[in-house]
């Protein structure tokens, strides 16, 4: 067995020191002082995205692995490009990003916010617009869909 993780160590020591608070595993990024979005997230449909650390202007890249592509297609990674309001690790910034799907001519834009509930659980609350390619101007009216997803940190 390996060394106990920091979280477990804190949990073990907590009863000894009063006022000590256990960090939920999901806030490991916070403990490391990372950007609140950085890491791996999964939505209710099983799609996974990895958000890379932002630069000093709040720009970030990442990859999106969708589980809801057409049945004959296996999941494939698509690049994403985003911007967030720079914020401390415990804050709740808004953000947006674009996914350029590698398996179709479609593009999705997401907007969202990182939220932390009273129990310390993080989630990304998002809404999206998906544009599919219309083959002619007459088809454009039906080419955009709207939806939403909630992501939780993959532990
Ligand atoms: C994101 O990717 C683009 C293109 O690959 C690159 O030019 C840019 O520096 C990257 N940004 C960050 C914040 O990593």
TrEMBL record:
Any single Gene Ontology cellular-component annotation: extracellular region
PROSITE patterns reported for this sequence: AVIDIN_1, AVIDIN_2, PROKAR_LIPOPROTEIN
Principal subcellular localisation of the protein: secreted
Localization, UniProt: Secreted
Gene Ontology MF: a single term: biotin binding
Pfam families: Avidin (PF01382)
Keywords: Biotin, Disulfide bond, Glycoprotein, Secreted, Signal
InterPro entries (alphabetical): Avidin (IPR005469), Avidin-like_CS (IPR017889), Avidin-like_sf (IPR036896), Avidin/str (IPR005468), Avidin/Streptavidin-rel (IPR051764)
Protein family membership: Belongs to the avidin/streptavidin family.
Quaternary structure and partners: Homotetramer.
Protein name as catalogued: Avidin-like
